[in-house]
Amino acid sequence: MSLRSAPLVPTARAAVLLALAAPVALVIGATRPEAWVVAPAFGLAVLVLILIDGLLAGGMEDLRVSAPGDIEVGKDAHFTAEADLPRRAARAELALECDPRLAPGGRAAFPLERPVPAGKPPWKGTFAFRPSRRGTGRISTAWLRWTGPLGLGARQFRGAVGKDVRVWPNIEAVRSPALQTFLKDAQFGLIARRIRGEGTQFESLAEYQPGMDRRRIDWKSSARHVHLYAKEYETERNNQIVFAFDCGQAMCEPIQGMPRLDRAVSAALAAAYVALKGGDRVSLFGFASRPEVATPFVAASRDFHRLQRAAAGLEYRSEEPNFTLALATLASRLQRRSLIVVFSEFADPTSAQLMIESIGRLVSRHVVLFVTMADDELEAISDAPPEDMEVLSMAVSADTLLRQRALVTRRLQQLGVDVLEAPWHTIGTRLIDAYLEIKRSGAIG
To answer: What is the sign, positive or negative, of the torsion defined by CA atoms of 216, 217, 219, 221?
Structure first.
């Protein structure tokens, strides 16, 4: 770390003592005018003590700041610092200037603990943080201040850190034991075999069992054998799944401390991992006022990191999304029937009109699943007891907005779009369930 000179600065305790000198001088001047020199002498004595204390604080040999090179958004991490300070130092504090996505306001301040026994190991400190957005956050500058034994004078170093922290999409759901157990036992595995079940390609006849879909009954064969038989189909693989992300202003609004876009990315990556394990091909598509991210289809789970890297490149845009251009561009890239999962957010039917029209054009050729997160804040306001007129008016307004959201989702369903609306903490599992249901129905192929 490159460090500049360490100037001597007064502490807050010294500032309080100097501030007390003024009223003392007024009292002495009013009662004993001949003793007025006492107050300046007191102030001069404090200044001398500040200088002596700062000199006793001594110099610093080294400062080391550590930070994780890679971390997932929303996960807890730590900055750590070690400083080699003289034994006479009484107290030390460190402040780091960093990207606001790493610490609120772009500032991380924390104390360094005195080594035990004194003077042997370095002073150490830790700052816990949780990145709020994806991207690369930089720790640019460090300020270290330590005081002398009297606590009146301090020395302060300022140095360049120049460390980058790469914040990736959160894939905690992919690593969860529950999902790994599910994939191990699921019928969509990596084993190279023909899987019988629901699909579109006929495989064989099987004796009808209670609970089977009655539409699968082969009535001709059943009449011939005087027994109920049902058709079994070979489960399809190599389907194309596209996760399309609206990166506009509404999706950048936070929900429980994290942007909706990041919640959507985490859910999509979990579903993408399941799809890759099931033999399907996955692509990511991001857009705002224009298309921004479009990945080629990934066909193997070992290449999942490519999807994670591409998702990390989805930018937060404070602009309205252009659904017409984005979805038309996406449709032109797809040469076969695919499942398109659209993550978006809307405020009212008027702003959602172009979105509805653009998504509606995809339904004739593709399977479309529209995913949005339930607005917990609106629901809480709508369900609040009407204690006064202000609360009542807020509840009525919130209820109106919820009804408008329901109107938009109903219009999408009427166009043939599958709609998934769920709280943010269940959106991942609900999306996986919806994907598997669509796959079992054979609607993609």
So the answer is: positive
Total H helices, total E strands in the chain: 12, 21
Q: How far apart are CA 156 and CA 94, in angstroms?
A: 10
229 and 240 in a common domain: no
User: From CA 339, how far away is CA 370, in angstroms rounded?
Assistant: 11
**Cα dihedral 82, 85, 91, 92 sign:** negative
What are 237-249's pLDDT values in tens digits?
689 999 999 999 9
**Rounded to an integer, what distance in angstroms lies between the CA atom of residue 354 and that of residue 369?**
17
Sole residue written with tokens 């001709």? 220
Show the tokens assigned to 263.
């919640």
Q: List strands edge to edge, sheet with 77-84.
A: 62-66, 77-84, 123-129
DSSP secondary structure code for residue 121 in this structure: S
Residues 6+ apart with CB under 8 A from 328: 358, 361
For 302-356, the pLDDT digits (tens) are 999 999 999 999 999 999 899 999 999 999 999 889 999 999 988 777 778 889 9
Q: Are residues 120 and 180 in the same domain?
A: no
Count CB atoms within 10 A of the CB of residue 130: 15
Domain range holding 273? 172-191+236-441
In a domain, 394, yes or no: yes
Which residue has 């990511």 as its token pair? Answer: 284
